[in-house]
C-alpha cells in the first residue's frame, strides 16, 4: 500500500503548567489522502487546534509524529499554510501586498511576487480590490484574502481553524462554496476545524469526530453526499440522517467534556 499524504501517527500532545500536566491529544491517529478535505469536529477543548498546530509545526509532539509525504514534521512546515479564525491581515498593506507578503519573505522580486499574487487574487474574485486596504473590505472579502495569501505560498496543505466562524450565516455559506471552488482549482489538501456540523457536511470528504479531552479519533465518516453541495442538499433525507448521527456522537462528547470541567472545578479551592 502507498503511504498516506499526511499521517498523524499516534500523536500525543501534553502541556505542563505550574500546577499540572495536561494531555490535550492522546494517540491521535489519522491518515489523509492528497486532495482530500477533512473536517475535525468535537467538543470545545478536545484538541482540534492542537492537532492543526502540530501539522503546521508550531508545536512538536510529546510522543508520536506527524508525517507529510513520509517526512516527519520537526519545525515550522512551509508546505502547510494556516488560515486563522481572525483574518490576521496587515492593515497598512493593500490586498495585493498582503497576498504577496510570504513571497516577499521568500526573496521574490516585487514584479514576480505581484504577478503571482494577482493570479490568486483573480482566483478568489477580488481583482477589483487588489489595491484596497483591509479596512475597505467586508469580513468575507478579508477571509478570501487570508485564504489567497496561504494559496499564493503554494502550500500543499491548507490548515483552516474555524475561518468562517465570525461571519454572518449568509456570508458563511457563500464562503464555504468559495473555499470548495478554490480547492478544486488548486488541488489543495485541507484540514478544517469547525463547530458546525452543517459546515462540515457541506465541505468535507471525511469528517473526524474527536473525543473529549484528551482528544482521540472517536470515529471517521466518509461523506458520500453528491457534489456540488448547496443549501438544497440540507433538505434531503440522507443529509438529515447523517447530521443526526454525527450530532449524537458529538453531543455525547460535549456532555463528557462538561462533566470533566465540572469535576475539575469542584476540585479547586
UniProtKB/TrEMBL annotation:
Keyword terms of this UniProt record: ATP-binding, Nucleotide-binding, Transport
What InterPro entries is this protein classified in? Answer: AAA+_ATPase (IPR003593), ABC_transporter-like_ATP-bd (IPR003439), ABC_transporter-like_CS (IPR017871), ABC_transporter_ATP-bind (IPR050166), P-loop_NTPase (IPR027417)
PROSITE patterns in alphabetical order: ABC_TRANSPORTER_1 (PS00211), ABC_TRANSPORTER_2 (PS50893)
* UniProt-listed Pfam families: ABC_tran (PF00005)
Domain annotation ABC transporter: ranges:
6-237
Q: Which GO terms describe its molecular function?
A: ATP binding; ATP hydrolysis activity
Q: What is this protein called?
A: ABC transporter ATP-binding protein
| Source species | Uabimicrobium amorphum
Starting at the broadest rank, the lineage of the source organism is: Bacteria, Pseudomonadati, Planctomycetota, Candidatus Uabimicrobiia, Candidatus Uabimicrobiales
Amino acid at each position: 500500500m502507498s503511504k498516506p499524504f499526511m499521517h498523524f501517527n499516534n500523536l500525543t500532545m501534553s502541556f505542563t503548567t505550574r500546577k499540572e500536566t495536561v494531555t490535550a491529544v492522546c494517540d491521535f491517529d489519522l491518515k489523509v489522502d492528497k486532495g482530500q478535505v477533512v473536517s475535525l469536529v468535537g467538543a470545545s477543548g478536545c484538541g482540534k487546534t492542537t492537532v492543526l498546530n502540530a501539522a503546521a509545526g508550531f508545536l512538536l509532539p510529546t510522543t508520536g509524529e506527524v508525517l507529510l509525504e513520509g517526512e516527519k514534521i520537526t519545525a515550522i512546515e512551509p508546505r502547510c499554510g494556516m488560515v486563522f479564525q481572525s483574518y490576521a491581515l496587515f492593515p497598512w498593506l493593500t490586498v495585493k501586498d498582503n497576498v504577496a507578503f510570504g513571497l516577499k519573505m521568500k526573496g521574490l522580486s516585487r514584479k514576480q511576487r505581484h504577478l503571482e499574487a494577482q493570479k490568486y487574487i483573480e482566483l478568489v474574485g477580488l481583482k477589483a480590490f487588489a489595491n484596497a486596504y483591509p479596512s475597505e473590505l467586508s469580513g468575507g472579502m478579508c477571509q478570501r484574502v487570508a485564504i489567497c495569501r496561504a494559496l499564493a505560498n503554494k502550500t500543499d496543505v491548507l490548515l483552516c481553524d474555524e475561518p468562517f466562524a465570525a461571519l454572518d450565516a449568509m456570508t458563511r455559506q457563500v464562503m464555504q462554496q468559495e473555499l470548495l471552488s478554490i480547492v478544486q482549482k488548486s488541488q489543495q489538501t485541507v484540514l478544517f476545524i469547525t463547530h458546525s456540523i452543517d459546515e462540515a457536511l457541506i465541505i468535507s470528504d471525511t469528517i473526524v469526530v474527536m473525543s473529549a479531552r484528551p482528544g482521540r479519533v472517536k470515529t471517521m465518516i466518509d461523506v458520500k453526499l453528491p457534489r456540488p453541495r448547496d443549501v438544497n442538499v440540507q433538505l434531503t433525507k440522507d443529509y438529515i440522517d447523517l447530521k443526526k448521527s454525527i450530532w449524537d456522537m458529538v453531543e455525547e462528547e460535549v456532555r463528557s467534556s462538561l462533566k470533566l470541567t465540572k469535576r475539575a472545578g469542584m476540585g479547586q479551592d
